[in-house]
Fold:
Amino acid sequence: MKNLYTYTMNQKAIILCLLLISVQLLNAQDDKIKFGAYARAFQQMNTLDTPGDSNANHTANGNVLMDLGININPDKKTEIQAIVRFSNNFNGFYTAGAAATLRQLYVKGTVAKFFNYQVGDLYMKLTPYTFFNNSSEGSVNEALIFSDLRRDYTNYENLSNRGNAWWQQGAATNFAFAFNESLIDTIRVDGFFLRNRASYATFPSAFHAGGKITITQSARLKIAANYINLFDVAANLKTDTVLLYNPVASGEINFKIINGANTQLALIAEGGYSENAHKAYKSGTTKGFFYDAGLQLNLKNQHLIITSNYSYVAPEFYSSAAQSKRVNYSNTPSAFPQYANSLKRGISIFDLVRDPGIYNQGISRSLMTYNPMYGNAQPYGKATPNRTGIQLNGQYKDSLEKIVADVDAAYLSEIAGVGSSQLRTFLVLKGGVDFNFHKFFDWKKRVILTAGYQYEATTRGGDPLEKVSLVNNLLDLGLEVEVFKKMSVLGGYKMLTSLGNEFISVRDVYNDLTINYTTTNMNVAQSVIAFGLKYRFSEKSYLTVQDHLFTYQDKATAANNYSLSQILVMFNMNF
Structure:
């Protein structure tokens, strides 16, 4: 999100004075005003190890910031939350690069004991097919040295550190009814009206409206209905011709077939439809549908959860808030966007971890571009259109969490051929495991080994000019060894290989496939080696010093090869 307000130095002084006055009045207000803060000092030094032309091969930048949270409770039913950011660049001189900005603001409360509301900035999430911020690519059980940086720097700066929720601006409400001695236990109603942050000023105003009704019949049965609609409000009907109308509705059911103390077997399903229309779209409305049904077995004594499902997502299905990508592959990396002989550097696994600038903060009006190297089977998550097949997931975590494992497998295919009468098929195998060795031997200091691997194969037969064969491999390894109390040595290794060919489809402004496509041939290997130190002041506050070494190798075109390194220091504190 862009900063909502930027203040002059005099205005910042006024703000600081008001904050100091608020602190003095804190005790007098019977704890109606509370403070919390997040602070971070970040410094990075980057080196491009590949000789080039006039492009810089050394950069250094950083800043120190504090996000001050002010929580005001004027009464027992109302809460006002504001987060003000104070930041200063390390390369500034006498306040050059200093700023005070309003990062977040909302008001929430309760009316008539049961009617809850929130107005302003908020996080919103429904189901993976309706309103869902899919996780970014390039990780599978990531090493701590990478995941700390991704969570507390990259995701935090993009306001995407709340799981799979989208950060939006608008109003939301919810209320619930409880029934005694009835066939229904509870009914909960959620509703929202959001202002969609469009990326282009030429588009008219766009809004997201919708909600969810959840009916809990008993501990065994729960059903829900979801509805969302992304629609435009034209400023001038004569000039605004690309007016979008994208309603999506779905129904859910969760029924526990077996609901024992140690064994549970549940039927989990969701199905729905979408519409996609534009004012200037002469052929009318495009309609699509999906369904996803499966079984989940929970063996509590064995600490094992197994889920299997079959899904069908029609080629015409479009759900803007579920199919928008977290990574915008049209963006340019901030570190060394060009290298030897002014070659443009694409987004790498190195950038996916540490570059907030490549990420997308808004909901797109059409399917965004993607890079098949980082995920070709379901680039838009479970809601990826033109996919059908089976998926299997297994999760294991013993009572002491000595071993934590998560395994996924999927076999999918296209429903309709794209650019060919033949259909692509996709095989995905993915797994991650944590070994907490210190818990095996009851050691007080941490010794943790993490590992993750993902294999993805895309194939299509037919005419030799239409054949597709693409294999991607992603490996994540990590190690944490606590050598002194609260002081750990960290290590991490990440590798991605991509070999084969693919045809990438091109869509127009109406989200329709064109006859054009982009042919891509890949024989690429990427790797990152990282090591460092981490001192924990608490579980959420720490100081880390890290060194990252990245190599990109294009085995088909040696001129595209490059390597770079980064040394960073990050102090991260929540209080």
Q: What stands out?
A: The chain has one domain: 9-574. The CA atoms of residues 227 and 249 lie 4 Å apart. The radius of gyration is 25 Å. Residues 9-24 form the longest helix (16 residues).
